Amino acid sequence: MTKSKEDHGIAIGIDLGTTYSCVAVWQEHHCRVEIIHNDQGNNTTSFVAFTDDERLLKIRLLPIQRTMSLDKMLWPFKVVAGTHDKPMIILNYKDEEKHFCAEEISSIVLAKMWEIAEAFLEKRVKNAVIAGLNVMRIINEPTPAAIAYGLNRRTNNCVGERKIFIFDLGGGTFDVSLLTHKGKIFQVKVTTGNGHLGGEEIDNRMVDYFVKEIKRKKKVDISGNPKALRRLKTACERSKRILSCAVATHIETYALSDGIDFCSSTTRARFEEINMDLFKECMETVDKCLTDAEMDKSSVHDVILVGGSSRIPKVQELLPGFFNGKDLVYDNQSSVGIKVYEDERTRASDNNLLGSFSLSGLPPAPHGHPFDVCFAIDENGILSVSAKEKTTGNSNKIVITNERERFIQMENALENGNLSSKLCSEDKEKISSAITKATKLLEGENQNGEIDVFENLFERVIGKFDF
């Protein structure tokens, strides 16, 4: 990648994703792959914006890969049939009408990845997997995923061939693959998936749900208002991310349409109910992959989760259940959920959950990136658990109290199939919302000043349970 001949063997790897794209380089002194961030410290969105004066890559628009009948009314550009019926994108750029094919748009993103790599390495990059550079090799997606998590070096507990299952649920597509590893050879056995299942589809489900709620509550139909739909979709995507680490959140969009403000709440239980058929479809695809490979799930040694949508708690609940409790290997994530249990059972999920919290702002790194967790008990017997990531100094903590433990038990009971089946959706949402509010009071600094509010919420919630 340098101007000299000595470095000509070094290469970068580029992942062109539906929602985000990233570039990586192998760091020999660390013996691992390092993800290179852009100048804003993030992955680069796979979207290109054309303004009157410039072309931007950091403004997120709607992806052109989605089902046209679903999203074309939201696109800020036109798509027409070109030569040999090839789709062509028409837009205005610097006061001129421009025609682009999808490959040209993708090449703009790829070129940006090239620039990011050169800025990071401070060297001229010549070897990669994009046009204009020396294409050294194009490899199937599951293989770099397995290498990135160090599975090519994990041979202690496996004699002979190792079987690896890759579950890749991204922003726009869903792919599952089964590959084998022996020695230095990775071989993809089976790959299947759905090109229109991912975070975008989940967001669209939430948008449809709230469009109906707005119509019911505000007597306004925004289904034909592209600007309002885009703003609502942004709010839904934000709430989806929050619900990966919280049981409830709020949707707030001011002056959404005709000066109407829309504020609503949603819970993780409601989110899962809206998208449950999509989650089940994911599991059916997993089963199909194993069936096509003529392999029993018990023979799989490692299960790797890739893609932002794989962080959805329901996905992380269903997948281990399918593989009979097998531990999962997660992808490069910038936050980690920490759960505090009590008891002595072998499987963590079989013990009593005392509480949980999230440590965010971490540098994306392969599975096994270390951080410190400290348990402390004060003179009153109150347990506090803290976590800290050394390189960034980011930290967070939780204090375990009797009240908090009871609310955690209530949350677990609310998600339990037996109790959940006895409650209607409205009751479950009200209970979950009350739990969230009461928990926030416990976490706040002014607990004494709001004790009456807390006790009221506590009584409202506990009345629904038999503890």
Automatic annotation (TrEMBL):
Coiled coil: none annotated. GO terms for cellular component: cytoplasm. Keywords: ATP-binding, Nucleotide-binding. SUPFAM superfamilies: Actin-like ATPase domain (SSF53067), Heat shock protein 70kD (HSP70), C-terminal subdomain (SSF100934), Heat shock protein 70kD (HSP70), peptide-binding domain (SSF100920). Gene3D superfamilies: 1.20.1270.10, 3.30.420.40, Actin, Chain A, domain 4, Substrate Binding Domain Of DNAk, Chain A, domain 1. PROSITE patterns: HSP70_1, HSP70_2, HSP70_3. One of its GO terms (molecular function) is heat shock protein binding. InterPro entries: ATPase_NBD, Heat_shock_70_CS, HSP70_C_sf, HSP70_peptide-bd_sf, Hsp_70_fam. One of its GO terms (biological process) is protein refolding. The keyword Nucleotide-binding applies. PANTHER family: HEAT SHOCK PROTEIN 70KDA. This is Uncharacterized protein. It comes from Glycine max.
